[in-house]
C-alpha cells in the first residue's frame, strides 16, 4: 500500500510563503500523475495543481502565478511552493498520486496538512 505523508503546513500572515512536502513510500516515477488538492470544511475538495512525469504542470486559476509544484524523483518527494498567500488559501492541503496497476488506475491520498493564512 502506497503511503503519502505531507508536511510543512502552518499559520502564516497574508502575503507570506509556505512550502509543503509530500514524501511517498515508493518511487514517484511509478506514478502517472501527482497533484495537490485542498479542502475547506463544508466544501468539496478542490484541485490545486498537477505535475506529470515529463514535468508538465497545470494550475487552478486561483493559484496560478503564486503556487509552484515540483518533484524530486531521487527523494520521492512532491513539493508545493506557495507565495503571496491569501486568507482564502486557508484549507487542508492533500497530496495525491495515481498509478496504473494491471491497466487499472489506483488513487492514493495523503492525510492532509493544515494551512492557515491570517489577514
Write the layout of secondary structure elements.
Blueprint: E1 4-7, E2 10-13, E3 18-24, E4 33-39, E5 46-51, E6 57-59, E7 67-72, E8 77-82, E9 91-101, E10 104-109, E11 113-118
Parallel strand pairs: 2-11
Antiparallel strand pairs: 1-3, 3-8, 4-5, 4-9, 5-6, 7-8, 9-10, 9-11
Detailed description of the structure:
With 119 residues, the protein is mainly β. The chain has no helices and eleven strands. The chain has strands at residues 4-7, 10-13, 18-24, 33-39, 46-51, 57-59, 67-72, 77-82, 91-101, 104-109, 113-118. Strands 2, 4, 5, 6, 9, 10 and 11 form a seven-stranded mixed beta sheet that branches. A hairpin with a 2-residue loop joins strand 9 (91-101) and strand 10 (104-109).
Head-to-tail CA distance between termini? 40 Å
Q: Report Rg.
A: 14 Å
Q: Which strand-content bin applies to the residues? A: over 45%
Biggest β-sheet, characterized? 7 strands, mixed
* Share of helical residues: under 10%
Number of helices: 0
Mean pLDDT: 96
Quick summary of this structure?
The chain has strands spanning 4-7, 10-13, 18-24, 33-39, 46-51, 57-59, 67-72, 77-82, 91-101, 104-109, 113-118. By secondary structure, it is mostly beta strands. The chain is globular and about 50 Å long.
List keywords for this structure.
119 residues, 11 strands
Amino acid at each position: 500500500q502506497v503511503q503519502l505523508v505531507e508536511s510543512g503546513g502552518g499559520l502564516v500572515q497574508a502575503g507570506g510563503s509556505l512550502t509543503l512536502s509530500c514524501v511517498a513510500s515508493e518511487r514517484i516515477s511509478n506514478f502517472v500523475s501527482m497533484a495537490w488538492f485542498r479542502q475547506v470544511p463544508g466544501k468539496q475538495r478542490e484541485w490545486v495543481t498537477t505535475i506529470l512525469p515529463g514535468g508538465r504542470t497545470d494550475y487552478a486559476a486561483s493559484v496560478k502565478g503564486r503556487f509552484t509544484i515540483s518533484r524530486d524523483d531521487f527523494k520521492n518527494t512532491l513539493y508545493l511552493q506557495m507565495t503571496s498567500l491569501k486568507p482564502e488559501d486557508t484549507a487542508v492541503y492533500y497530496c495525491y498520486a495515481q498509478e496504473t496497476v494491471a491497466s487499472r488506475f489506483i488513487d492514493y491520498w495523503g492525510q492532509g496538512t493544515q494551512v492557515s493564512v491570517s489577514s
